């Protein structure tokens, strides 16, 4: 998995590489740490409707939502925890 530079601007990054990196991260999660497909899809639908989603990232915590949503025990960083 290629590490994405945390100090680069979006204009300096290959967005396809960023997407590939996040996808590889999600795929590499051990099954016991990974949310099932239904829960993952439910979480992403919630994120897609959230005002804190910007360019695939959560402005509340800075995570890539597709990576965070894939983790079984992860929570939404919003104070209302929209995933509950």
Describe the structure.
The protein has 84 residues and is mainly α. The chain has one domain. It contains 3 helices and 2 strands, in the order H-H-E-E-H. A two-stranded antiparallel ribbon has the order 1-2. The protein is globular, with a radius of gyration of 13 Å. It starts with 14 loop residues before the first helix and ends in a 14-residue tail after the last helix.
| Classification by helices and strands | mainly alpha
Principal-axes shape call: globular
β-strand number: 2
The helix/strand order is: HHEEH
Largest sheet: 2 strands, antiparallel
Query: What is the overall pLDDT average?
Result: 88
In the predicted model, the low-confidence regions spanning at least 5 consecutive residues are none
Euclidean distance between termini CA atoms: 31 Å
Side-by-side strand order of the widest sheet: 1-2
Q: Helical percent range?
A: 25-40%
Radius of gyration: 13 Å
Total DSSP helices: 3
- The quaternary organization reads as single chain
Number of domains: 1
> What portion of the residues fall into strands of 2 or more residues?
under 5%
